[in-house]
Specification:
TIM Barrel; eight-stranded parallel barrel; about 40% helix; binds 2-phosphoglycolic acid; alpha/beta
């Protein structure tokens, strides 16, 4: 029995349409057949409720939430709204939102507090830029993001960290197993320092150009408890082999 059950989460970003929900059905069917792994798909907000009708056993999640429950925040979606639509998981602080929507660590923490307070599984994303890694500052950068973005209070199993080096997202460049091992060990150490034994049970996902071809190698690295997958989560043909690799690891 592993200490932490693996989680493979697909982040559809601003992709997908009603016509592509057959992929969710196919992913769910394969996930059921494979077993042993938690699987989630995070489509755009507009597809949450319809995706749920295809989800049979897998988790449907959102890609962002607002920290408040309601109010004058045009265009935003709250945790109670996500739950009503059937979401059981949310991604907070993805690097694309940190860059495009200027989300700070404090913003991400406030969102994560709302999500965890509402009982959603909450994936908090961290990761360094290429320049930060080149300068040798990658560990310090991620440790600072963890300190600033992670809440104090959460229920067992609901807090998840995703390490996503920005330079590996959507680029086809994957961090080496050695780099991933170094970072995941540092994240684990930070989690245990802050939360004690509970920190040892927080799942740490790797994200950034995860594909069928590299998934098994990544899942073999210590403290890699699953993956956050962008491009390769859009079709069952690409996503299912990643789920199978997680199950086999
Ligand atoms: P990618 O995206 O798999 O397309 O690199 C990962 C992510 O942004 O979560």
């Amino acid at each position: 029995m592993h200490l932490r059950r693996k989680l493979v989460a697909g982040n559809w970003k601003m992709n997908g349409s009603l016509g592509q929900l057959a992929e969710v059905s196919a992913i769910a069917e394969a996930a059921r057949a494979t077993g042993g792994v938690d699987v989630a798909v995070c489509p755009p907000f507009t597809l949450l409720a319809p995706a749920l009708t295809r989800a049979g056993g897998i988790t449907i999640g959102a890609q962002d939430c607002h920290a408040a429950a309601s109010g004058p925040h045009t265009g935003c979606v709250s945790v109670p709204m996500l739950k009503e639509a059937g979401a059981r998981l949310v991604i907070c602080g993805h690097s694309e939102r940190r860059a495009d929507q200027h989300e700070t660590d404090a913003d991400v923490r406030a969102k994560a507090e709302a999500a965890l307070g509402g009982g959603l599984v909450t994936i908090i994303c961290v990761g360094e830029s290429e320049a930060e890694r080149a300068a040798g500052g990658h560990l310090a950068r991620v440790e600072a993001q963890l300190a600033g973005s992670l809440p104090d209070d959460w229920e067992e199993g609901e807090l998840v960290v995703a390490y996503e080096p920005i330079w590996a997202i959507g680029t086809g460049k994957v961090a080496t197993a050695v780099d991933v091992a170094e970072m995941h060990a540092a994240i684990r150490a930070a989690l245990v320092a802050r939360y004690g034994d509970r920190g040892a049970r927080v799942r740490i996902l790797y994200g950034g150009s995860v594909k069928a071809e590299n998934a098994a190698e990544l899942f073999a690295v210590a403290d890699v408890d699953g993956a956050l997958v962008g491009g390769a989560s859009l079709t069952a043909a690409q996503f299912v082999p990643i789920i199978e690799a997680a199950a086999a690891s």
